[in-house]
Amino acid sequence: MEKWWKKAVFYEVYMPSFADGNKDGIGDFKGLTEKLDYFTHLGIDGLWLTPFYTSPKVDNGYDISDYYAIDPDYGTMADFEFFIEQAHKRGIKVIADLVLNHTSSEHEWFKESISDPHHPKRDWYIWRDPVEGNPPNNWESFFGGSAWEFNEESEQYYYHAFAKEQVDINWANKEAKHAMFEVMAFWLNKGIDGFRLDVINFLKVNDTFKNNPVDENNQQTHLYDKDQAGILEVIEEISSFVHQFPDKVLVGEVGSEEIDVLSTYSGKNKLDIVFNFNLGSIPTFHVDTIFKQLRKMEDVHHEDQLPTLFFSSHDMPRHISRFGDEGIEEERAKLLATLMLTAKGVPFLYFGDEIGMRDLVHHDISLMKDIQGVTAYDLAIAAGKSKEEALVMANEKSRDKSRSPMQWDNSEYSGFSTVKPWIAFPEIREGINVKEQLNQIDSVLSYYKKLLELRRMHPALHHGEYELLEKNGDMIYFIKSAEGERMMVLINFGEIEVPFPSEAHSVTDILLANKRKNVDGTIQPGEAFILCLEGDKA
After folding, report:
1. Identified catalytic residue from 198, 227, 354, 370
2. Is 512 exposed, middle or buried (0-12, 13-18, 19+ CB in 10 A)?
3. pLDDT attached to residue 537
4. Where does the Glycosyl hydrolase family 13 catalytic domain lie (predicted)?
5. Catalytic residue among 97, 149, 253, 400
6. Under a CB-based contact definition with an 8 Å cutoff, are residues 444 and 355 in contact?
7. If you write DSSP's letter for every residue of 18-87 in order, what string do you get?
8. Alpha helix (H) residue ranges in 301-386
9. Helix, strand, or coil (residue 264)
10. Average pLDDT, 10 consecutive residues per value, the chain (538 residues)
11. Which of 266, 311, 422, 464 sits CB 3.0–4.6 Å from 482 for a disulfide?
12. Is this structure's pTM higher than 0.90?
């Protein structure tokens, strides 16, 4: 039987910013439950929820202080259980973001570990002696600065790959590992349909603790603090454990943009899928780059692997702001939606992209919420930059860009809440909200809905294999087939018309066209078509 997630379209919900049910300015389970019919209307199969566990929120929930409790900002365990019940009633699966790499420094485990060098939980974390009065090595935090924090009481350093309040678990310790497996079992028994595993390739570090190499620009290569020997054995253990529970999915965030690295983490006995950052996180729009990565994913992946398709998340700028040239932002957003929802792979949509929400840029550092941006600001000031220069650098690093509240309508707080939200809105543009776009035939939201309906209806779109994957100028086109269906998708990202490809000689129907309703000898700039072709492949 085909696994459900292979045909699914996932939608990422950034918990504090989606829907505020109790009107305190923070999104929660009550608000999310109230919006479940929206997902049904849109045609979403699965939700990915960012962390909802108890947390001091130094890194907005990715610093967990209690894995077994719902953070009060998001409601109660009863609210969570009701949400799961209602989502499942609608046929919507739910996967939970889970951080196995580190805990909050406020977690009881770490409090015990730091309390006494001889405590049984001391070895649950990574502690090292100073080297000549300095940190054990030169490893840098991925948020900036040293990855080591000194504890004066014990005169040792503890390791943190991210913020100093996010303390790395020692996965070489069997008891610590077992404790994390118990966490997974708890939520799977609660009805969660799987996990998105945060920075999963960081679970092992090199136990020689060698210095990482540094290039001529003083940029560190993270050679010894991720993707280490033994990590795939840990992944296989996690996979074996989770897949004892029926119909569960494991999605991995692997911190790399190299397809050859990413591909090693998924497949039989490993993670089911990983995020293909080789495609999803490209910084600027370039058709050649997109096509090259689509082709690489097809060439590198084996039969037991599927790529993922996405261009936005809570960790990166929204792609409509990142890729959209002035005046054609929404046109390009529709073209990219066509690609994500018809190419081979598992799509992950990010909340608000379906209405064309734009990035949030701060003009005052006091409004910035993301620790990565704030750290960049502090480091810039310490390096002698002006406040203006530091703010520019902070906005470049900040992940607040894509974390502003969902824009449901054109009321004062965009229908997200009746009170001032926890984070600012970007400059609101007319028409960028759900209420106004729902009944507009040509809106971005209506276009997404059409695509999702077609994908659900046609096997060739939701799990077809490529017969053809080609590029002509700035047009990407492909043929996919499954269960006797053959579909051709043509997407012209360029500014000039492109000849109709010879492979489309047997069109029987036009399922979708974003501009013209018929096809002649050319594909015009900014046009997308989904076509039915007759017959089996040649």
Report:
1. 198
2. middle
3. 46
4. 12-403
5. 253
6. yes
7. T--SSSSSS--HHHHHHTHHHHHHHT--EEEEPP-EE---TTTTSS-SEEEEE-GGG--HHHHHHHHHHH
8. 319-323, 329-342, 371-382
9. helix
10. 93 98 98 98 98 97 98 98 98 98 98 97 98 97 95 97 97 98 98 98 95 93 95 98 98 96 97 98 96 97 96 96 88 97 98 97 95 93 96 95 97 96 92 95 97 97 96 97 95 95 84 86 93 71
11. 464
12. yes
The pair of three-digit structure tokens given for residue 299, joined into one six-digit string: 């060439």
- Give the model's pLDDT for residue 41: 96
pLDDT of residue 538: 38
First-to-last alpha carbon distance for the chain, in angstroms, is 28
Residue 522 to residues 245, 290, 477, 514, 529, Cα–Cα distance (Å): 51, 22, 13, 15, 11
Q: How far apart are CA 360 and CA 282, in angstroms?
A: 19
> What gap in Å lies between CA 243 and CA 194, rounded to an integer?
9
> Is 198 an annotated catalytic residue?
yes
Q: State how far the Cα of 253 lies from the Cα of 251, in Å rounded to an integer.
A: 7
Place of tokens 């595993």: 197
Question: Residue 268, CB half-sphere, CA atoms under 13 Å: how many?
Answer: 3
Helix axes 387-397, 371-382, angle to 10 degrees: 150
